[in-house]
Amino acid sequence: MSLVKRCRRRRTRGLPTLLVGTLALATSLAGGPATAAQQGTLHELAAAQGRYFGSATDNPELPDAAYAATLGSEFGQVTPGNSMKWDTTEPARGQFDFTKGDVVTDFARQHGQSVRGHTLVWHSQLPGWVTALPSAQIEAAMENHITEEATHYRGAVTAWDVVNEPFNEDGTFRTSPFYTAMGSDYIATALRAAHAADPDARLYLNDYNIEGLGAKSDAMYALVNELLDEGVPLDGVGMQAHLAVQYGFPYEMRANMQRFADLGLDVAVTELDVRVQLPADAAEVATQSTYYRRVVEDCLAVERCVGITVWDYTDKYSWVPGTFPGEGAAGLYDENLLPKPAYDAVRTALGGGEEGGGPGALKVLYRSNDSSSADNQIKPGLQLVNTGGSAVSLSSVTVRYWFTGGNGASTYSSWCDWSALGCSTVTHRIAAMDTPGAGADHYLEVGFTGGTLAPAASTGEIQLRLNKTDWSNFDESDDYSHGTGTSYTDTGKIAVYVGGELVGGIEP
Ligand code: G2I
């Protein structure tokens, strides 16, 4: 493609693109400047970088007041998860019902948020009458649907996923009533109809597994090149980003975003979530945070990446467990609407740091409950204190106490003798270190099955005990974490982790 052609494209649909990467665009996408309530929120931080930060939502969850409060304050953009789809908006031919979609646009207006319309043409969630229609009538039905819906939402929706998920994994076109009737031309036809109905909306093609370089994103790249060459109104490519820790991070996501941007297109991350296999362990939680952080970093590195939408922000209303049994915990907030380590990772990547110490600020107080450091048991007493300004979800927290096993058996038992929280909430195990350090070849790892720790709160005492299975003696005197103090103090030699990331204490 020649440079001349690229310049022409930019001029044709060029004006708004001059603002991309500036606060002005984020402000216009968000429907206005961030409100006072949004100071320091994810959207506020994103807006300072010329981006928006949004969430999917929909009618079933909006009556949940606590949910709606965070949705309305933390996020500057919303996408209805279902209520603008064809089966909801035109359940019978020519009979349009925008009631549910209007609930979402009303909420957005009240909270100064922009709305991404999702979606005009998709093979899924189609009403029966569309699939039953003779091929010869599909084009007219599609044009009418797009015209009615995009006209209804004119002014309320700033961007449309005009066509959703047009490709198979191998990059061939997905079969749908539209593809069967019109071949791949249905995509250009749909974009033209949407542009005619709402010339101000930013028009996107949206798909999953096109975040990284690969056959599917190559197919999208070839398609958008063709559409731009033909002068079809197209403004951007939406990358859904339904990620999973077990499948790895999308290959070269940043470079892939950049090649679309280089065509003069906007790029948006439209449906981000990162699912894990349940129950989530500390390593998965840490990887999940890393993936969220990398998506934010990649978007910020690409000037034409206009914003990020998560699908939806809390595990309480995530689509994942219903579709992938045994998987979940994919969101930024847990089922109790508390921010998870991934939330902190996103904040930090957006340049926000952890306010007031943030949810990751914890310290461990220790005393020895053992009168002898040469007998057959080690008895640490621990208390965990939240020194930050936000509540901490205890299921993401682990604590490590290091010791040496010495002679005798190398298998261990551990016990919770007493805990102010109840020992049933406390988990414990002994693990061998891959690389032993001074005074340490094993550690006792303590965790929690659930619960939250409010700012400034303590777990209260947790009395732990461990022994070798042959009950041979220890020599604790040189153990890394061992102390002889009888009152609780922060020795710094017991470490605490949130989501697998070290937040307090020093490792051996
Ligand atoms: O599947 C995740 C997303 C993938 N990209 C396109 C998105 O449109 C899609 O969203 C999901 C919604 O989040 C789900 O909520 O699309 C699903 C359907 O493909 C939605 O699930 C459906 C359930 O399957 C139905 O049983 C349910 O009646 O939601 C409907 C409304 O709650």
Structural description of this entry:
The protein has 508 residues and is α/β, with parallel strands linked by helices. It has 2 domains: 320 residues, TIM Barrel; 143 residues, Immunoglobulin-like. The chain has 15 helices and 21 strands. Strands 1-2-3-4-5-6-8-9 form an 8-stranded parallel β-barrel, surrounded by 6 helices. Strand 7, helix 12 and strand 8 form a beta-alpha-beta unit.
Structural class: alpha/beta
Report how far the terminal alpha carbons are from each other.
57 Å
What count of structural domains?
2
Number of strands: 21
Overall CATH class of the largest domain:
Alpha Beta
Put simply, the count of helices is 15
pLDDT < 50 stretches = 1-39, 355-359
Q: What fold name goes in the CATH topology slot of the largest domain?
A: TIM Barrel
Main sheet: strands, sense, barrel = 8 strands, parallel, barrel
Q: Approximately how much beta-strand content do the residues carry? A: 15-25%
Tell me the helix content: 25-40%
Radius of gyration: 27 Å
General form = elongated
Strand order of the largest sheet: 1-2-3-4-5-6-8-9
List keywords for this structure.
508 residues; TIM Barrel; Immunoglobulin-like; 8-stranded parallel barrel; 15 helices; 25% strand; disordered N terminus; binds ligand G2I
In short, what is this structure?
Helix content is 29%, strand content 25%.
Q: Topology of this structure?
A:
Elements lengths: L2 H10 L10 H7 L12 H6 L4 E6 L7 H10 L2 E4 L5 H4 L9 H12 L3 E8 L6 H5 L5 H15 L6 E6 L12 H6 L2 H13 L4 E6 L7 H15 L6 E4 L2 E3 L8 H9 L4 E12 L4 H20 L3 E6 L9 H4 L3 E2 L12 H9 L12 E7 L11 E7 L5 E2 L3 E7 L8 E8 L6 E12 L2 E9 L3 E2 L8 E7 L26 E4 L2 E4 L4
Parallel strand pairs: 1-2, 1-9, 2-3, 3-4, 4-5, 5-6, 6-8, 7-8, 8-9
Antiparallel strand pairs: 8-10, 11-12, 12-19, 13-18, 14-17, 14-20, 15-19, 16-17, 20-21
Helix pairs in contact: 8-10, 13-15
The structure holds ligand G2I.
Ligand G2I binds next to loops.
